[in-house]
Amino acid sequence: MKKILVTGALGQIGSELTMHMRNIYGANNVVATDIRRIEGHETVESGPFEVLDVTNAKQMADLAKKYNVDSIIHLAALLSAVAEAKPVLAWEINMGGLFNALEVARELNTAFFTPSSIGAFGPGTPKIKTPQDTIQRPQTMYGVTKVSGELLCDYYFKKFGVDTRGVRFPGLISYTTPPGGGTTDYAVDIYYEALKSGKYTSFIGEGTYMDMMYMPDALNAIVTLMEADSSKLIHRNAFNITAMSFEPSQIAAEIKKHIPNFEMSYDVDPVRQAIANSWPDSIDDSAAKAEWGFNAKYDLASMTSDMLLKLREKLNIK
Ligand code: SER
């Protein structure tokens, strides 16, 4: 990757990935785009930034040509709970945007990354050590767009030779930009509330296991996969990756080691609980490890220490 276009650059992944890649590839070589401009945001101020609606094919193609990009990181999408509330819009943005981005990649012959998700699995998928290649029959609009997206990316590789690559991200946890509208968001919210009020009410029920990952591992995964030797890749769209699997009481117990008076209660949201119940408990990421050397550094304990440290600074809590 030398000249990179990022869509959704002000979102949960994009805001940190843009800065991470600007450090590696040079600020001017990472063109950040988003549906809105936030004045003063470091992603907007630290290098090229353009407003882009990903459902506008011409606008996307024009920008890619203007900057002569050789790689596209397509992140703009709605998360699971929002997609469930607005399924038509989710199809338009998640699929329409992806199709437009793949067409630009085909025309300009760029490398291409887009994230899939544990949401690409469904109730019929084996829940424990979910294999790389397995049943994918999700029952949410988010999942439908993720499976369709994986297939479409494979199609562009086989039919047109576009160098498409992707990962199935688990819930991503970070202290920078909040996720907004996902099922795994509880595992981010809990840290904010633990510091602000010492208690948290979880919308996901006790005993509900899901895979999770700390953002630095997610950023490394994207760059490592995109720089991997193409001839080593047997799979492409998309690789299972994970760093940890836990349920709400386990993250609460970890936080209690730092904030002994922390208390958690439950008020389960039936919509997000149903989504969580349809996802794996823990996925098998051996293909990613074997084919491109994926390796997560953070586990629940080291992530919790770092999250609380960084959030204390951010929220100015002593
Ligand atoms: N974190 C995402 C969500 O909860 C899963 O891809 O929607």
TrEMBL record:
Residues 4-232 form the NAD-dependent epimerase/dehydratase domain. This is L-threonine 3-dehydrogenase. The lineage of its organism: Bacteria, Bacillati, Bacillota, Clostridia, Eubacteriales. Belongs to the NAD(P)-dependent epimerase/dehydratase family. It comes from the Bacteria.
